Amino acid sequence: MRWIRRAGCALLSAMLTLGAGAAFAENQDALFAEAAAALKTPAAAALEAGTLALRPGDSLYHPALRSTVVPYDQLETTAAPAVQGAVTSSDPAVVRADADGLLTALTPGTAEVSCQTGAGTQTLTVIVTDDAIPLAARNFAYVAQREFTQTARARLPKYNQYAKWYYGKRKEVGWCSVFTIWCANASGNHPVDESAVTEAATDQVLYFREGQVGNQYDGFQKLGRFTGEPRVGYVVLYGDLSNSYRTTHIGIVVGAEARGAGLYRVTTVEGNMSNTVKSYCYLYDSNLDNHTVGVEKGKRLQENMSVVPKVEQTDPLVQYALQTDHWCVFGFGASWL
């Protein structure tokens, strides 16, 4: 009879565990749905806040006309939004507004940009500054976050929507780099072949169309754009301390908070982590910078990642445990300067 009681207790414990797991999964799905609904494009967020920061050279349609992001390979077939009234800038030398409502940031300063629509006049304060993160890089980070919330950590096949878009035929391979390329295109950027680029203007936002992580490194390295400091919209490359392999994985930096003394809190979105899209948050020590390993003679990979304090682990959808116990940050591909 004793073994029957033990078996009954074990069965009850298993049922409770399964029930808790199902409840957690249901709650996780609800959290992902909530996060997806709350996520806004940079343009939509600016329209809601009434303020938009741009860097000289940035351009976009007035957010009252279009707040979505158009993929690069659809730009030529996407019509300009219909303007129902005038779009005006209080200072055309700072922000130019054309007849279609396209705004172009020209020089540092502030301008009030108004757009008349069927809903009335919507005015946006546009601040143009050299310190702003380029809009193209912010759109890149937004698309990565959108994919994370929409896929909701579901396990994806090797031949998924990202690989299908990139290869055009069935090919089951690791897709971490392909994910970054897909996000670059979907955010309106033009990912380019590494071999086709020998130089780039300092104000150019640049992403590489390379399915191999090593080729991504080659592209940024030869342009002097492989760095030890993270920024939003950069790609992050990881190395493997267990075998000194420097280009083992790649992700997208969606958050980079400087903590002082060379320490950063970095948030990423990464494809092909256990066949899913995941978001990670960790501390990165740039004093243990690895980006010149392989270039600087005698330099070896150093352990430069650590777990953020428990009190800061507040987002239930983000992974705070490190990806592995033997990876390090190799460096960052500086998509913008």
Can you give a write-up of this model?
By secondary structure, the chain is of the alpha+beta class. The chain has six helices and 14 strands. It has helices at residues 2-38, 42-49, 135-151, 161-167, 176-186, 213-222, and strands at 51-54, 59-61, 87-89, 95-97, 102-105, 109-117, 120-128, 226-227, 235-240, 245-260, 263-273, 276-285, 305-306, 327-333. Strands 8-14-9-10-11-12-13 form a seven-stranded antiparallel beta sheet. The radius of gyration is 23 Å and the shape is globular. Mean pLDDT is 92; it is low at 1-22.
Q: In this structure, how is the largest beta sheet organized?
A: 7 strands, antiparallel
Residue share in helix: 25-40%
- First CA to last CA: what distance? 73 Å
Please give the number of β-strands.
14
